[in-house]
Amino acid sequence: MAEPTFADVDELVGPATPHFAYQLRARVRELVRDLPEDHPVRRYGEEKIELLDRLGHASSKAEDGAREPRSRLGWSELPSSAPVDDPLPRAG
Fold first, then answer.
1. How much is the mean pLDDT over the chain?
2. Helix (H) or strand (E) holding 53
3. Is the separation of the CB atoms in 5 and 43 below 8 Å?
4. What are the φ/ψ torsions at residue 27 (nearest 5 degrees)?
5. CB-CB contact of 25 with 52 (8 Å)
6. 49: Cβ contacts below 8 Å, ≥ 6 apart
7. Does residue 2 contact residue 35 with C-beta atoms inside 8 Å?
8. Which residues in 41-75 are b (16+ Cβ under 10 Å) and which e?
9. What is the pTM of this model?
10. DSSP structure string for 5-22
11. Strand ranges, E, within 1-92
12. In Å, how far from its chain's centre is CA 21?
């Protein structure tokens, strides 16, 4: 494989979502792990690994976040807007 580039790291990290942050973090780590510690692409990759870690961790703490107001645009279009601690009554 050719030596990893900044673009290779960006290609992995660019479409990151909280849901896939840890999987992408592992791929970036694997991409840069064989580069010397002082290599600029490795340092860049390690910065992105930290970013992905923060993204995944922050999104995994839903209990710490505030509830979305029922007045939020589009709320009435959600299939079920009932929170887990106050579920909708079972049908039938």
1. 82
2. helix 40-59
3. no
4. -70, -40
5. yes
6. 25, 28, 29
7. no
8. bbebbbebbebbeebbeeeeeeeeeeeeeeeeeee
9. 0.63
10. -HHHHHHHHTT--GGGHH
11. none
12. 3
**Tokens describing residue 83:** 């929170």
Question: What pLDDT, in 10s, does the model give residues 9-49?
Answer: 999 998 888 888 899 999 999 999 999 999 999 999 999 99
For residues 8 and 31, is the Cβ–Cβ distance under 8 A?
A: yes
d(C-alpha 13, C-alpha 30), whole Å? 13
Residues of the chain with pLDDT > 70, as a percent, come to 67
Look at residues 64, 58, 55, 69 and name the one whose alpha carbon lies nearest to residue 24. Answer: 55
In the numeric block, the tokens 């009554």 are attached to 89
pLDDT at 90 over 90: no
